[in-house]
Amino acid sequence: MGEKILIVDDDLESLKLIGLMLQRRGYQISAAQSGAQALVKARGEKPDLIILDVMMP
Fold first, then answer.
1. What pTM was estimated for this model as a whole?
2. Angle made by CA atoms 12, 23, 16, in degrees to the nearest 5
């Protein structure tokens, strides 16, 4: 089973595109659209990598 990656972005289309590309390469993907949601998922799911949009509102 592939490594877990958490993608954090407020733009839904970016989340879908990045998630699809990474899933095709064998990674397990989790997504969050806010900082608060990302913190909850990061604590609960313990991803190996977090890809973060640093220009979120």
1. 0.92
2. 10
* Per-domain residue ranges of the chain: 4-52
Inter-residue contact 7 to 16 (CB < 8 Å): no
For each of the chain's 57 residues, which pLDDT tens digit applies?
689 999 999 999 999 999 999 999 999 999 999 999 999 999 999 999 999 999 887
Residue 55: which H helix or E strand, with range?
none
The contacts of residue 44 (CB under 8 Å, 6+ apart) are none
Contact 51, 7 (CB under 8 A): yes
Please check whether the domain covering 4-52 is classified as CATH 2.40.30.10. no
